[in-house]
Design a protein that fits this description.
Elements: H1 14-23, E1 28-32, E2 50-54, H2 57-66
Parallel strand pairs: 1-2
Length: 67
């Protein structure tokens, strides 16, 4: 059995990533982890995205199922 391939995203510029998400029609970013959600640059593309923060995958899944 082959080893699982791990995917990694490296973000150097959140504004550029946010512009790409906005261009693709993405409206919300769901973040899972212990830290707070930061909108980074409230004047650029990130102002067109909603950021939702959850401390666990289970909470994020419950939120998404309820949406």
């Amino acid at each position: 059995m082959a080893a699982a391939v791990e995917s990694v995203v490296v973000v150097n510029n959140m504004e550029t990533l946010a512009q790409s998400m906005t261009a693709l029609g993405i409206a919300e970013v769901v973040v899972i982890g212990r830290g707070d959600v930061s909108a980074f640059d409230s004047h650029g593309a990130t102002s067109h995205l909603r950021f939702s923060h959850f401390t666990s995958l289970a909470l994020a899944c419950a939120y998404l199922k309820a949406s």
